[in-house]
């Protein structure tokens, strides 16, 4: 499992190198006095990281929005852990952006509860519609711990970018509600390439990501990025299954 996982991760990393070098150079050349452009570059880089997983066989998306992830839990845990590492790196390399990240607002316990409930409201109906039965899926329970790390680790990175950097920056320019709406639309728009070319599934992906993005943005507005990460991670976890073959 570990050997095969390392091979998959190395192939993924090599595949990303040209794009990451260009995005890194672009980000480094843009002065810190241009935060909006630097945020846009980071969002583009995240889209690259996410969408490159499809041709590398790390995940897939079905027409009923069921997400299949590689069945190797080591790979999933490694990707989730690397996402958390990238968050730490961004906090060090871009403190001028990190100052807009609101990790928690109000009661932390209330935020976690609302985040979990909202994630269930998004994910459970789809899980029931898709007929996901954990006991009937071979290797599900062995796969689940790695998926937990990926669901909350990788989506923590996504939430820091969209609800931390972008939404936090926008709140300095417009009202909090408008910033949340812009963040939600931007989140869905950053799935256009995935929806129309990578998977060719079209509007269902865009509608789902718009609703998911709006839910996460509103949770972030009230309770902060930690709560919105719980929302996002829970929703994805509920509709995820191990890929077969």
TrEMBL record:
Keyword Nuclease part of the UniProt annotation: no
Protein name, per record: CPBP family intramembrane metalloprotease
CAAX prenyl protease 2/Lysostaphin resistance protein A-like domain boundaries: 142-234
Signal peptide from the UniProt entry: none
Transmembrane segments: 6-29, 36-53, 73-94, 106-128, 140-162, 174-195, 201-218, 225-243
Highest taxon, organism lineage: Bacteria
A GO term, aspect molecular function: metallopeptidase activity
Any single GO BP term: CAAX-box protein maturation
Keyword Cytoplasm appears in the UniProt entry: no
Keyword terms of this UniProt record: Hydrolase, Membrane, Metalloprotease, Protease, Transmembrane, Transmembrane helix
InterPro entries, per the entry: Rce1/LyrA-like_dom
């Amino acid at each position: 499992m570990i050997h095969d996982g390392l091979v998959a991760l190395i192939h993924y990393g090599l595949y990303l190198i040209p794009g990451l070098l260009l995005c890194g150079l672009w980000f480094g050349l843009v002065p810190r006095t241009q935060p909006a452009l630097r945020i846009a570059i980071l969002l583009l880089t995240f889209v690259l990281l996410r969408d490159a997983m499809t041709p590398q066989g790390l995940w897939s998306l079905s027409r009923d929005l069921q997400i299949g992830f590689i069945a190797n839990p080591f790979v999933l845990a490694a990707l989730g852990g690397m996402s958390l590492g990238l968050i730490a790196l961004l906090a060090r390399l871009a403190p001028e952006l990190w100052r807009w990240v609101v990790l928690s607002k109000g009661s932390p316990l209330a935020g976690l509860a609302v985040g979990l409930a909202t994630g269930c409201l998004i994910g459970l109906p789809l899980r029931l519609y898709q007929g996901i039965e954990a006991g009937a899926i071979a290797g599900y329970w062995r796969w689940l711990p790695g998926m937990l790390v990926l669901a909350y680790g990788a989506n923590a990175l996504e939430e820091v970018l969209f609800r931390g950097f972008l939404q936090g920056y926008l709140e300095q320019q417009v009202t909090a509600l408008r910033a949340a709406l812009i963040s939600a639309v931007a989140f869905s728009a950053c799935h256009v390439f995935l929806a129309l070319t990578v998977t060719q599934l079209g509007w269902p992906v865009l509608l789902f990501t718009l609703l998911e993005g709006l839910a996460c943005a509103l949770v972030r507005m009230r309770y902060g990025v930690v709560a919105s990460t719980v929302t996002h991670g829970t929703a994805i976890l509920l509709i995820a299954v191990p890929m077969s073959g």
